[in-house]
Design brief:
Layout (H helix, E strand, L loop, with lengths): L5 E5 L3 H14 L3 E5 L5 H8 L3 E6 L4 H10 L7 E5 L4 H9 L4 E4 L4 H49 L3 H15 L3 H15 L2
Parallel strand pairs: 1-2, 1-3, 3-4, 4-5
Helix pairs in contact: 1-5, 5-6, 5-7, 6-7
């Protein structure tokens, strides 16, 4: 962690919050903000727009876990949660909620930096996977639209698949557009015409 991070620590107990803040300061030059009040947590986190959120909670319920996870935006930033004890269901719920690191047996200052590093690395890996998945889904949808457009052209013009694709491609090139955009327009027009 080389850049200065804005780290929000969610901890209602000041006696537990201070050692966490001190441990984070020892781990690096970070801007540490402590949120003690859990009501309005989503608003508070949104206003601060932290790089990382650390949640220290002794024994979370499933409802508290979901609320904290949603409030801290695990899809927008790394979130590490420290709990005193847990069970398989809570661990699974934390993972499903998008928590980057779920650490059982509480928070100890010597574990802060490695957990922070792991949470950030895991978050970036999942962000990359989400981006790749979104790109793959978009490409698949485009492929489906192009296939439908080819079918429309094949039926309307009595041509084979290769010729239909060549016609789509030429039309796209002539218009300075993408093949998928031309295909979408053709499918929409065919739908309006009832073809």
């Amino acid at each position: 962690m080389s850049k200065r991070l804005l780290i929000v620590v969610v901890e209602p107990d000041p006696d537990r919050a201070q050692p966490i803040a001190d441990g984070l300061r020892e781990a690096g030059d970070h801007d540490i903000r402590i949120i003690a009040e859990q009501s309005g947590l989503a608003r508070q986190v949104a206003e601060l727009r932290p790089d990382v959120v650390l949640i220290d909670i002794a024994n979370p319920s499933r409802d508290v876990l979901e609320e904290l996870a949603l409030a801290s935006g695990p899809s927008e930033r790394p979130v590490a949660m420290f709990v005193d004890r847990s069970d398989e269901g809570m661990t699974r719920a934390a993972i499903e909620a998008g928590i980057s690191a779920y650490v059982v047996d509480g928070l100890r200052p010597e574990r802060l930096k490695p957990v922070l590093d792991a949470a950030i690395a895991r978050f970036h890996i999942f962000q990359q996977m989400r981006a790749e998945l979104a790109a793959t889904r978009a490409a698949l949808e485009e492929r489906k639209i192009i296939d439908r457009a080819k079918a429309v052209l094949m039926k309307a013009r009595g041509i084979d698949e290769e010729a239909a694709y060549a016609l789509l491609r030429k039309t796209a090139m002539d218009g300075g557009k993408r093949v998928a955009d031309i295909a979408q327009q053709l499918v929409m027009a065919a739908g309006l015409l009832g073809r």
